[in-house]
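Troubleshooting log. The previous structure file for this entry was overwritten by mistake, so regenerating from the original sequence record. Sequence copied from the archived sheet and checked twice against the printout by T.R.
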Amino acid sequence: MSKVQIYTTQICPYCHRAKALLREKGVSYDEVDVMATPGARDKMINRTGRTSVPQIFIGDTHVGGCDDLFALDAKGALDPMLAG
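Regenerated output below.
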């Protein structure tokens, strides 16, 4: 199973949706709260070029945000990525 990392904030509804989808699929993930972890937002921006959360990585692949995650799932591409 591929490692999943998700940059979030506690107040972001899209973060909660993305995490819920991952939980439904039985996927554990490494969550980085960019408001609570010093330097995490800067690291996320440097890795992704984006300032919004969530930002999701599956393995070394930057998936994007919540809508991107759901789009991958809708076209059947998310499960194979998660499986590695």
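The chain has one domain: 4-83. Archived copy saved in two places this time.
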